[in-house]
């Protein structure tokens, strides 16, 4: 019983997390992988880590002090279930199994229930930051019981990224809460990336600047309120020249965006919860549209303006795009936090939204200064119904208003697709509208399906007798 923590699954994520754990004082790390070769490789490559290798689950369990704590980092899905079963065969009540893979939160809820019935604790944990994060400090989103957090908390705090002296980990809530929050993180990441891509496209077509010149624009933006990891790496990507052709790399890369599915999960879940995450949805669909070359080929001849904006004042246009990006980004994050709030209500998780914003400030892909403003907003008003109505964001949106509208209008007039910019603006205007045409939709629904409607001036539910004399009846009378 020499190790205080173990890792199962020694592919890139698991071995980096194991090395991270081993590098912190007080930790001795047991390691196990289904295929022995990976364990041997890790031991040979990193003797400094002092790993305790195991070549069977029995050995693995025997090498851990109690309560045993094991982090699973294997392929999400059936492999995770298989490893859980194997661990349950050798673990005892009070021990802790952590799944650090990218599980769908519904699976985590199911697994937590099954594992809990054996007396073992199960923690579904979102891990963000990719390989480098796992090694140097990820953003960690653990769910699970309060009991497991007592043992796990200090270990996770020791390996997480640090932002402004605070570790990027917090106990998110029970069962699937951690994986739910990780899912929405990825959805927001999709939206943020799409918005940046649209900003690049608009500047390129609008001003004729080269990718390298636009890299300078992004680098400059990174020194201001847009300061973030994604803006920073965007500048790096745009500056890159292809060695083989001498062309900007971004012009050599096939323009079809891939996806591993977590953005789609965020949107599907939002639909289930009735939360409008239109920015994230547009980002997911923009990737899908890009990845249908056959549809794009047959559509290439469709009429429209040449996708070039006629910009008179280049600097003013770039500043407008920056403001439009900032405003749209506020919308995307507001929608994402709205989804977390709705998920917490639906699944009875007590999630501290301000704490979520804080743990995303380091280690993860959407890390940004901006997240401080979100945690400030929830600190001032924990029950804030719509994040973008917090004073700081209202100020920002007030400043960005005109620019945002003119950029979206210019994009539409010039035939430059800007789905995330324009849907964010439409969402914003929908929220602030005094009256929405939803009343007409209720009328239509009542007409064809007798779905009834409520009135602005009286309590109750009503139906118009559309196919008779078109008088109105109280809905109770019609059933
Ligand atoms: P992979 O997702 O490629 O999974 C490979 C690992 O899973 C190997 O250790 C493999 O063992 C093990 N495995 C597969 N099937 C089984 C099985 N039936 N029983 C036991 N072990 C099995 O590894 P990654 O390191 O890329 O990712 C690990 C997890 O972390 C995944 O869930 C991933 O989604 C998640 N994640 C990944 C991030 C990333 O940036 N890559 C970021 C955050 C989370 P063997 O060697 O025997 O084949």
UniProtKB/TrEMBL annotation:
Any idea which UniProt keywords this protein has? Gluconate utilization, NADP, Oxidoreductase, Pentose shunt
**Entry EC number(s):** 1.1.1.44
Q: Where does this protein act, in terms of pathway?
A: Carbohydrate degradation; pentose phosphate pathway; D-ribulose 5-phosphate from D-glucose 6-phosphate (oxidative stage): step 3/3
Q: What is the lineage of its organism?
A: Bacteria, Bacillati, Actinomycetota, Actinomycetes, Micrococcales
Q: Which SMART domains match?
A: 6PGD
**Pfam families of this UniProt entry?**
6PGD, NAD_binding_2
Q: Which reaction does it catalyse?
A: 6-phospho-D-gluconate + NADP(+) = D-ribulose 5-phosphate + CO2 + NADPH
Name the UniProt record assigns to this protein:
6-phosphogluconate dehydrogenase, decarboxylating
Task: Name the protein family.
Answer: Belongs to the 6-phosphogluconate dehydrogenase family.
Q: What is the top EC class of this enzyme, as a single word?
A: oxidoreductase
Subunit details: Homodimer.
Gene3D superfamilies assigned to the protein according to its UniProt record, in alphabetical order? 6-Phosphogluconate Dehydrogenase, domain 3, N-(1-d-carboxylethyl)-l-norvaline Dehydrogenase, domain 2, NAD(P)-binding Rossmann-like Domain
